[in-house]
UniProtKB/TrEMBL annotation:
Protein name listed in UniProt: Phytocyanin domain-containing protein
Top-rank taxon: Eukaryota
Record-linked Pfam families: Cu_bind_like
Entry keyword set: Glycoprotein, Metal-binding, Signal
Domain Phytocyanin stretches: 28-128
Signal peptide per UniProt: 1-26
Molecular function per GO: electron transfer activity; metal ion binding
An annotated GO cellular component: plasma membrane
Organism: Lolium multiflorum
InterPro entries listed in its UniProt record: Cupredoxin (IPR008972), Phytocyanin-like (IPR039391), Phytocyanin_dom (IPR003245)
PANTHER family per record: BLUE COPPER PROTEIN (PTHR33021), OS08G0137400 PROTEIN (PTHR33021:SF397)
């Protein structure tokens, strides 16, 4: 009975620590514009990105009707000018998944005439998970960071308490 209880406590402690580690490292998949919009002419993408933080390992999916739109990845100049002349890559499947593998800014626009000028362009800032001294994170970033860090500390305390309680047996 005693051994079984100790085994249970250890199993719980391991599970708690493992689950927190998973949360901290979890990659996030975003559907561009969702849930209120998609890749379309109505969504305010500046507003959409401002409410989210993107990290290496995350991915974004452009979902749209391929008869109506496409997706072109461009550089900053192309983004600013709404020009896909020097594009990085182009997609037109209607369900294009883009991996955000590295830190830095990524720029996308719709290449159909007039769509980018009407606001159909999006700039994704892929940021480090922990904000460096040069990065000024928006409030949402620090809030999310604190939540994860807080959960990690909580799990550590729980694990320590569980392991500590074993000393009394
Ligand atoms: Cu379009």
């Amino acid at each position: 009975m005693e051994i079984r209880r100790r085994a249970l406590v250890i199993a719980v402690a391991v599970a708690v620590v493992a689950s927190v580690a998973r949360v901290a490292a979890a990659a996030t998949s975003y559907t561009v514009g969702a849930p209120d919009g998609l890749w379309d002419m109505q969504t305010d993408y500046a507003e959409w990105v401002a409410a989210r933080t993107f990290h290496p390992g995350d991915n974004i999916t452009f979902t749209y009707s391929r008869e109506l739109h496409d997706v072109v990845e461009v550089g900053k100049a192309g983004y600013d000018a709404c020009s896909s002349a020097n594009n990085v890559s182009a997609f037109r499947s209607g369900n294009d998944v883009i991996s955000l593998t590295a830190l830095g800014m990524r720029y996308f626009l719709c290449g159909l005439t007039g769509h980018c000028d009407s606001g159909m362009k999006i700039r994704i800032d892929v940021a480090a998970t922990t904000a460096g001294p040069t990065a000024a994170p928006p409030p949402t970033t620090s809030a999310a960071g604190n939540t994860v860090a807080g959960a990690g500390r909580g799990a550590l305390l729980v694990a320590q308490a569980l392991v500590g309680s074993m000393a009394f047996w």
